[in-house]
């Protein structure tokens, strides 16, 4: 069995224009200590994160405390956001209704899902019987959940959209099927 502890990043500072370098707010940094408190007693065999600053900052206190080697993978980056204007919720629903849809200069959920699932299956094949720390983004995590459960959709995403941070533990069997999952931390903003 492989246990993956998915950590959705803490509250970012949305005043930054560059998505990749957007840091956590001071509140987000405080909440990252709650991630540390919740997972401090887990023995992690491997640690992986999106390369984005907010995902790394969210798990950094835990990584330092447990003296983990932090690996990043560019395929785990956030979904490329295109031109949104004032119709964010409408576009969000449209992306969930049609996984191949993307706004101008944006990325489809299908593309996001393919990137994340490729990394996940690499982890599942290389890290049998291990505990994995996996720092990610809300849309990325939701695309993974949808892959394993096609009924996970728009309303499920909306439910977790404001959980920053959020920890979801998922256990996989030898056939890479989900055999259990549990929400370990929900901080709603």
TrEMBL record:
Could you tell me the keywords of this UniProt record? Isomerase
InterPro entries (alphabetical):
His_Pase_superF_clade-1 (IPR013078), His_PPase_superfam (IPR029033), PGM_Phosphatase (IPR050275)
Which molecular-function annotations from GO does this UniProt entry contain?
isomerase activity; phosphatase activity
Gene3D superfamilies registered for this protein in UniProt: Phosphoglycerate mutase-like
Which EC numbers characterise this protein's activity in its record? 5.4.2.-
Record field: transmembrane: none
Cellular component annotations (GO), alphabetically ordered = cytoplasm
Matching entries from Pfam families are given as: His_Phos_1
Query: Could you identify this protein by its name?
Result: Histidine phosphatase
Q: Which organism is it from?
A: Oenococcus oeni (Leuconostoc oenos)
């Amino acid at each position: 069995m492989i246990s993956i502890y998915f950590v959705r990043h803490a509250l970012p500072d949305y005043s930054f224009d560059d998505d990749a370098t957007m840091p956590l707010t001071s509140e987000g940094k405080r909440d990252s200590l709650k991630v540390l408190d919740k997972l401090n007693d887990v023995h992690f065999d491997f640690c992986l994160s999106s390369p984005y600053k907010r995902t790394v900052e969210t798990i950094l206190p835990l990584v330092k405390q447990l003296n983990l080697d932090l690996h990043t993978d560019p395929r785990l980056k956030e979904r490329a956001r295109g031109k949104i204007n004032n119709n964010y919720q409408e576009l969000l629903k449209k992306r969930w209704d049609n996984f191949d849809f993307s706004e101008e200069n944006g990325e489809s959920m299908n593309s996001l899902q393919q990137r994340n699932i490729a990394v996940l299956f690499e982890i599942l094949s290389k890290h049998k019987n291990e505990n994995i720390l996996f720092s990610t983004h809300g849309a990325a995590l939701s695309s993974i959940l949808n892959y394993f459960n096609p009924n996970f959709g728009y309303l499920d995403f909306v439910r977790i959209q404001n959980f920053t941070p959020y920890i979801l533990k998922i256990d996989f069997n030898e056939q890479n099927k989900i055999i259990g999952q549990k929400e370990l931390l929900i901080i709603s903003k």
